[in-house]
Write a structure and sequence with these properties.
The protein is mainly beta. The protein is 9% helix and 46% strand. The chain contains two helices and 21 strands. The strands form four sheets. Strands 1, 2, 3, 6, 7, 8, 9, 10 and 21 form a nine-stranded antiparallel sheet that branches. A hairpin with an 8-residue loop joins strand 4 and strand 5. Helix 1 packs antiparallel against helix 2. The longest helix is centred in the N-terminal third of the chain and has 12 residues. The chain is globular and about 70 Å long.
Length: 256
Amino acid sequence: MHDFSYNGVSLSGFAGRILQAPVHTVAKRNVEMVKIYGRSGDDVIDNESYDNVDFSLKIGFLPHLTAYNAQTLAEAVIDWLAPLQNGYYTYRDTLNNGYFTQALLKNFGEVKRELRTLLTATLRFSRVPYWYSDAGAVAVTAVNGYATLHNPEQYDAEPVIDIQYTGSSSSNAHMYIKGNGTEFADIVIGGITPTHILDAVTGQHYRMVDGAKVYLSPVLPPNIPANTTYTYSAFIQGHSWGEDFTMQITPNWRRL
């Protein structure tokens, strides 16, 4: 029997199991078919994105494995899922070991009724198109301003770069960042703006101030191509390579 976790909590912790595993579904490419006047056959517009994937899990309980009865376990699952109706949360299951995704629970009201009456339920989720690998969620720290990563997946990765100024200067200077030798960022960094997060996943370049994002510029890191080795290099103007800053890259290796 299979298990899943949602927002870091596993169904097996409630003596629950997946009774009917989801069918593995790959995200569909978002394309439009357009009729062109005077032309036979439709034109195809590729929106260069993938649609969300809807999937279902049928769950049930094995109360004989615990000191609690099935009704108590059902109520515990309801209490677990109730606060998780407002957005995406991390989803993992034993069918995709080593990967995780972000999913939205779509039918809590239905689940609540089913659990209280049938002691089984079908959970319906909508997940983002990609599964992200655990290996790709580990940040790589640049050494002397250099970091080399290899994308093992069949799809481009959207990295997140976290830069922290560690010098003592109170003024700002230009920092240059290259990918495979090509410059993609010229940002102002220093004592006034010590933190930069270049997030290709959300499409944002920002820093955090009192728990809120302050947007800095439209500069973003390019995607890391599939099945390639990619090298980052960075330095602050007038400084040696790697001096007065730290740089960490979370590559976000992914697959459909």
